[in-house]
Amino acid sequence: MADDVWLSSLITETPQKGFELAIKLARMGVKYTQPSAEVRDKLRAVYGEDADSLILSSQVVAVNFQTVAAANNYWK
Amino acid sequence: MADDVWLSSLITETPQKGFELAIKLARMGVKYTQPSAEVRDKLRAVYGEDADSLILSSQVVAVNFQTVAAANNYWK
Amino acid sequence: MADDVWLSSLITETPQKGFELAIKLARMGVKYTQPSAEVRDKLRAVYGEDADSLILSSQVVAVNFQTVAAANNYWK
Amino acid sequence: MADDVWLSSLITETPQKGFELAIKLARMGVKYTQPSAEVRDKLRAVYGEDADSLILSSQVVAVNFQTVAAANNYWK
Amino acid sequence: MADDVWLSSLITETPQKGFELAIKLARMGVKYTQPSAEVRDKLRAVYGEDADSLILSSQVVAVNFQTVAAANNYWK
Amino acid sequence: MADDVWLSSLITETPQKGFELAIKLARMGVKYTQPSAEVRDKLRAVYGEDADSLILSSQVVAVNFQTVAAANNYWK
What we know:
The structure is a homohexamer.
Chain A: H1 15-33, H2 37-47, H3 51-71
Helix pairs in contact in A: 1-3
């Protein structure tokens, strides 16, 4: 993973693309801890039906979106 | 979802509209992980009656509201 | 709820009034997800006696208080 | 509680007094939700022996300490 | 505890010492709530073997490290 | 651990290396609390298969990434 370039910049064209980058960051945070795509897919089937897991996921996105939004000076 | 434009700006007219945008961001954070409206509706019926889920939801809104408020220079 | 004006400014006279606004924001975060006052009252009776729920609630207030305090330039 | 003045300033003489103010803010966040001292004392006996509750409490303090530290320009 | 001076400055020589101060702040957040060293030692034996407790602890350190890093202007 | 130098700077060449530093900070937050590599390896096998643990881990990374990104002025 360290050899893949998956994050070359925090700058995005629009707030929405910034939000989508925040989602990617949240997923990469999981991927570094659990590199197996097979395991992650299995888990996603479970937590995608669990309200608290979904709310927690949304919070990780929110924290990452703060970073991306600040990097983009809030697209002002 | 990536084709829909649902977030073109973080700027809102009033703090209250900013808070409502924060709620939208929290929900979109869930929607990207669980795209099925049917599943989300089913889960909402459950977590809407669970105190901890509601408190966690409010926290996600709070984190997103920090971002929106900063983007709007706190509506000063 | 969208028709009610309940948040017209983040500016408060004192830090304490700012803290109380943070509490209001935390509660509104819950209210938008669970609009029924009856359900919320029932849940409050439960989580008011649960230590972890109270600590989580205090955290939501803390996150909102960061926003309100920054908006008021920390009442300096 | 709204009639008591318990927070007139975020400014403290030292970082340590700032940390202690952050603890007070965390406790007040609980107190506004559960005003009964009797209930809070009962709960404290329980969560004081629960590792996760203590860690969560420490997190609420940490979030409030961010606010107090920023208000004091980090005592620089 | 209030009589002990344990935090006279947020400034540290290096980022690593700042991280170690963040750990101290996390522990002090627990200590103010549970002053008994005996109870804390007993709990540490438990949560030191619990993955979620360790992750939550790391999060409290992360929040405190934000404060310490900002105080040190990120050691730039 | 205090004798090892593992963090001499928050500055990284790229956002991706910054994200990887955030992961390291999250792991060090665990390591200071649970110094035994053997115990940590055993726990990792468990939480690597638990969705909520992975989401929580990703959140710790997100909080640390805020710090690293700010230190690097968002690599702008």
